[in-house]
Amino acid sequence: MFADKVRIFVKAGNGGNGAVSFHTEKYVPNGGPDGGDGGKGGDVIFVASSSVNTLSEFYYKKHYRAQNGENGAGQNCYGKQGQDLKISVPVGTVVRDKETGRIMADMFENGQTFVVMRGGEGGRGNRKFATSRRQAPAFSQHGVKTEEKEIELELKTIADVGLVGFPNVGKSTLLSVISAARPKIANYHFTTLNPNLGVVDVFEDSFVVADIPGLIEGAGSGAGLGHEFLRHIERTRMLVHVLDMSGSEGRNPCEDFLQINRELEIYSKDLTKLKQIVVANKMDLPGAEENLRIFRSRFKDGYEVFPLSAVCRDGVKPLLTRIAQMLKEIPPVAPLEFEPFVYEREDSDAFEILANDDGSFEVVGPLVDSLARKVLLDDYDSLRYMQKTLKNKGVFAALKKAGMKDGDTVVIGGVEFDNVE
Q1: What is the number of other CB atoms lying within 10 angstroms of the CB of residue 22?
Q2: Whole-angstrom Cα distance, residue 399 to residue 412?
Q3: 147 to each of 20, 39, 65, 120, how far by Cα in Å?
Q4: 273: which DSSP letter?
Q5: Is residue 82 helix, strand or coil?
Q6: Which of 283, 305, 398, 416 is 20 to 30 A from 326 via CA?
Q7: Nearest residue to 93 via CA among 66, 78, 112
Q8: Residues with Cβ < 8 Å from 319, sequence gap 6 or more?
């Protein structure tokens, strides 16, 4: 199954918890705290691979989670860091954040890596909270928990040449003749349901050709599978417009040519700026010579026309020679230009004061979340540590500025405290 646009859920590993432990050893009466830190959670990393050419794997498996960091232990033992999760995606995959729709990365080159989510930091063990005045802290810090995010992956094929045209005009046959690609070929519409790639060698030069599945009227506006196919043309450097010049299915080659170009323009104005040459295919069939004469008289300016018969392999060599020559004059495809979107880590010192309707005040924000991970309400040293932190970070000053008075209730981390001055 071919898939070129999927949505998946990714989650970096949680940080391991710090340990609460005290050194105990014979003849060492005051060993002190020796709780080790928790390990960092694993990152989620995308890796562009030329050996993968579809997003089908993500169609069946939707959730990807990196390994959590291990908890710390006594005797100053640090928790093991969680293993990173590396996910292979095809070259040409565009990574977007589903919620905002913004681009996070363009996996343009083989071997390119992108860290989409970083693992949570490990919590500190009680050894890290020991001071000259707090020599036996009985609390530690929990590791940072990460959130699951929804990611959109969109594959935009990277090729030098894109073959476009109505269904059953001979694009797949042409690709099979000029390259080693073996697409399905049959005498009915929409034989090709997925873009096919082939490498073409012309003397010492080579280039990649993409056979874009047959377009139909309204494709530029999304009719049929229009957008699903047209996205693969955006990365090409030039277009080869294949026409059934014989009109074997009762179609008019001139009208087909105009219609396809109209659909390209509707989808994206940039596609009209690409160099385009015309392949007059099926010249071995009756009526082709007359239709070619009419076509050339109507479109005498701006387009080079190459008559050929893909089935008989007549006229293929001049076409390939001209394509190779033109590609030398066309700049290579460049990655998308965008302002990268990243999942920012919250400022651990940020907080906000909320005045509730009942007259109480509530402190919320990353600072409170951080304290909640390392404060034990039934431990005196832990509460002292929280009070000192709130004072040093300016929380008490902000509460007074917000109107807090003696006896008012303050809610921190879902726990109510009475303000005593």
Answers
A1: 16
A2: 12
A3: 26, 17, 10, 10
A4: G
A5: coil
A6: 283
A7: 112
A8: 240, 277, 279, 306, 308
pLDDT digit string (tens) for 328-363? 999 988 888 899 898 877 677 788 898 888 888 888
* Distance set, CA 50 to CA 47, 95, 108, 109 (Å): 10, 16, 10, 8
Distance of CA 149 to the CA centre of its chain: 11
Which region holds residue 103: left if phi is over 0, alpha if psi is between -120 and 50, else beta?
beta
pLDDT score, position 3:
67
Whether the Cβ atoms of residue 171 and residue 192 lie closer than 8 Å to each other: yes
With residue 234 as reference, give the H or E element that holds it: none
Q: In what order do the strands lie in the sheet with 63-65?
A: 63-65, 5-11, 149-155, 93-97, 103-107
φ, ψ of residue 151 to 5 degrees: the values are -120, 145
- Show the beta-strand stretches assigned E in 219-341: 238-244, 275-281, 305-307
Amino acid symbol at 106: D
Question: Cα(183)–Cα(302) distance, rounded to whole angstroms?
Answer: 31
Question: What are 113's strand-pairing partners?
Answer: 47
What angle, rounded to 10 degrees, do the helices at 253-267 and 288-298 form? 50
- Please say whether the beta carbons of 207 and 325 come within 8 A: no
In this predicted structure, the answer to whether residue 185 has a pLDDT above a threshold of 70 is no
Residues in Cβ contact with 210 at an 8 Å cutoff, skipping those fewer than 6 apart: 157, 159, 161, 162, 163, 195, 196, 197, 232, 233, 236
Whether the CB-CB separation of 48 and 111 falls below 8 Å is answered with yes
Give the residue-averaged pLDDT of 91-112: 94
Tell me how far apart the alpha carbons of residues 307 and 243 are, in angstroms, rounded to a whole number. 10
What's the one-letter identity of residue 227? Answer: H
Alpha-carbon distance 121 to 69, whole Å? 8
Report the pLDDT value the prediction gives residue 184, as an integer from 0 to 100. Answer: 55
Q: What pTM was estimated for this model as a whole?
A: 0.76
Per-residue pLDDT of 221-276, as tens digits, reads 444 444 466 777 888 899 999 999 998 888 899 999 998 888 888 888 888 889 99
Helix (H) or strand (E) holding 51: none
